[in-house]
From TrEMBL:
InterPro entries hit by this protein: SDH (IPR005631), SDH_sf (IPR036714)
Alphabetical list of Gene3D superfamilies matching this protein: Flavinator of succinate dehydrogenase
A UniProt-annotated Pfam family: Sdh5
Claim: Chaperone is one of the keywords in the record: yes
Gene Ontology terms: biological process: tricarboxylic acid cycle
SUPFAM superfamilies: YgfY-like (SSF109910)
Name of the featured protein: FAD assembly factor SdhE
Length: 86
């Protein structure tokens, strides 16, 4: 049975707020609340894949301490742009 769109958004939102580190909770949680509903199916698929990455790598990518894998570059740029405006 496939996941409904509503369930997927709830699952991604919960995974965004309940990471392994508080820093990533505070970065991904507000981003998810503000943007998940407006992402395309392809963008949601990519965001879902991003959430499988470990928090130490994610934090280094969003803070500019390490290069972002090309696959996630545009998404990380969107997330960091949201974080800077918030």
């Amino acid at each position: 049975m496939s996941e409904t769109a509503e369930h997927r958004l709830k699952r991604l939102g919960m995974r965004s707020w309940r990471r392994g580190t508080k820093e990533m909770d505070m970065i991904l949680g507000p981003f998810a609340d503000a943007h998940l509903a407006s992402l395309s199916p392809a963008e949601l698929e990519l965001y879902d894949a991003l959430l499988l990455e470990n928090d130490q790598d994610l934090y280094q990518w969003v803070s500019g301490q390490a290069p972002v894998p090309e696959r996630f570059a545009a998404l990380i740029e969107t997330i960091t742009g949201h974080t800077q405006r918030a």
